[in-house]
Design goal:
It is a single chain. The protein is an all-alpha fold. The protein has one domain: Sodium/glucose cotransporter (Up-down Bundle). 74% of the residues lie in helices and 2% in strands. It is built from 19 helices and three strands. The protein has a three-stranded antiparallel beta sheet with strand order 2-1-3. Helix 7 packs across helix 15. It is globular. The termini are far apart.
Length: 509
């Protein structure tokens, strides 16, 4: 059970976050300072900020749950992530550096026109609301477990509201600089907590835990798909081809076209600094995934080699929070819970600032026709930050009844639009004759097609079938499995480029 020391650590963390976040942002004179930090942030801080932003609470509680209930094959995704960062660093970032861009979608505005820029920006906003809404909800899981254990039940919306308000305070005051420097602090908090949990687990698991894990196949990290039909492998998200290729394309979209990450890269002092920050962040993410997967295996051994249902839990994501409460010494539990909050707040603050930046630069300025004074623009940017904070809280509450693993849910949501976003960027880079009307048309068409593919294309006992949102009884009866989520971005981006090129060729004829 948690002690007074644990609660004191958590409270001190909340107070420290609000104070340090407000102080670290410095003075802002306009949106260039508020949204881009004056383009004077050191590369290593940007590197750690990227890592803290993309790992979030989904990593802290979701990745251990994957290893607890399965194997280590999730680690294959990082191979694709590293490859993606190299491609983005060499191909995308030099294009962004050619002008003083404030958002990733300014490139689309220069290449196609303001219509394409605004369309991509709006889709980005919707994607961030859904994907990061899952992340914010994920943070509420361990907090709810804690209060339930001490007979102080809180609802998910109440928890989400509290986290959202505290995060919005320092994001509102400090801008992107406060977000980045708080990300650096928060990363070391949650990594330190994870390392402490690893040490405690190693001292409390049975001596033969590794042999038992190997015997049960838990240590498998490479899934070659040998002996399975191709259709079956295409439904497995951690099949080596799906994980690496899908992870690479997904990483190109998330780090090359999503303003959540691109905004940080634009705060660097030079293109080389941004490239260094991006590539090194991939190596750090690999180490983090390895750390949390190891914790998942050790949790499985610690709890007697059983599944989460045997432990009386409703979902695998509750296993690590259960151990934090029951199995850690006083003070360490508080540290790790502060780390979970840190991971969530780093992602939420990043999203708030990125959404305010994109809505201000890509939508408000373009369609209001107003050339605001720096002080007025800064005021509008802060108002948008507050608006997005409350919208975020509302969206996060939508996911409280989901039964999916939150880490997979968060990643699969982004896959609806990431393919189209990446595809239209690539189309603009490789096809110099593509026009704005064509780009918008194929972009929106791709999102519609991907919605049909994600909900309607299944592989089962009779092979590939189309059944739009079949019932659970039909899924069980026919043995239906959806396409592995990493393929969504691959299919979407390829479809966008192919359709855009085909329409352009027909027009020229």
């Amino acid at each position: 059970m948690l002690t007074t020391l644990d609660y004191a650590i958590i409270l001190l963390y909340f107070v420290g976050v609000a104070w340090f976040g407000a102080r670290s942002g410095g003075r802002q004179r306009g949106t260039g300072d508020y949204f881009l930090g004056g383009r004077n942030v050191p590369w290593w801080a940007v590197c750690f900020s990227i890592v803290a932003t993309e790992t979030s609470t989904l990593t802290v509680i979701g990745v251990p749950a994957i290893a607890f209930g399965g194997t280590l094959t999730f680690i294959q995704m990082t191979f694709g992530y590293i490859l993606a960062r190299i491609v983005v660093a060499l191909w995308f970032l030099p294009r962004y550096a050619t002008g003083q861009m404030e958002t990733a979608y300014e490139f689309l505005g220069h290449r196609f026109g303001d219509g394409m820029r605004a369309t991509a920006s709006v889709v980005f906003m919707a994607t961030r609301l859904l994907a990061d809404g899952v992340r914010l909800f994920a943070t509420a899981i361990p907090i709810k477990v804690i209060f339930d254990s001490v007979q102080m039940p809180l609802t998910y919306p109440a928890i989400i509201l509290g986290i959202g308000i505290v995060t919005a305070i320092y994001t509102l005051i400090g801008g992107i600089k406060a977000v980045i420097w708080m990300d650096v602090v928060q990363m070391f908090v949650y990594v330190g907590g994870a390392v402490a949990a690893l040490v405690v687990l190693l001292n409390h698991v049975p001596g033969d835990w590794l042999a038992r894990a190997v015997e049960a196949g838990k240590t498998q990290w490479l899934d070659t798909g040998a002996g399975k039909p191709l259709g079956e492998n295409l439904t497995q998200p951690y099949w080596i081809v799906c994980a690496v290729l899908g992870g690479a394309v997904f990483g190109m979209a998330s780090h090359g076209t999503d303003h959540l990450i691109v905004q940080r890269l634009l705060t660097c002092r030079a293109t080389k600094d941004a490239q260094k920050a991006l590539v090194v962040s991939g190596l750090v993410v690999f180490l983090q995934f390895a750390l949390f997967l190891a914790i998942g295996i050790l949790l499985w051994a610690h709890y007697g080699f059983v599944d989460f249902k045997t432990l009386g839990l409703e979902r695998g994501d509750e296993v690590f929070p259960k151990f934090i409460i029951e199995g850690l010494p006083p003070g360490v539990s508080g540290l790790i819970l502060a780390g979970i909050l840190a991971a969530a707040m780093s992602t939420l603050s990043s999203s708030l600032n990125a959404l305010a930046s994109s809505s201000m630069s890509d939508v408000y300025r373009r369609f209001s026709g107003k050339d605001l004074e720096p002080a007025r623009a800064l005021y509008v940017g802060r108002v948008l930050t507050v608006v997005w904070a409350f919208v975020f809280i509302g969206f996060a509450c939508l996911f409280r009844d989901t039964k999916n693993a939150v880490v997979e849910l968060g990643l699969s949501i982004a896959s609806f639009t990431y393919g189209g976003l990446l595809g239209v960027f690539v189309l603009g880079l490789v096809n110099k004759r593509a026009r704005q009307t064509e780009a918008i048309a194929v972009f929106l068409t791709t999102i519609a097609v991907m919605t049909v593919v994600i909900f309607g294309v299944w592989y089962g006992n009779a092979g590939w079938v189309f059944a739009f949102r079949p019932s659970e009884d039909a899924i069980k009866a026919q043995g239906l499995k959806a396409i592995g989520w990493p393929w969504y971005t691959v299919i979407g981006s390829a479809l966008t480029v192919a359709l855009g090129s085909l329409i352009g060729a027909l027009r020229r004829r």
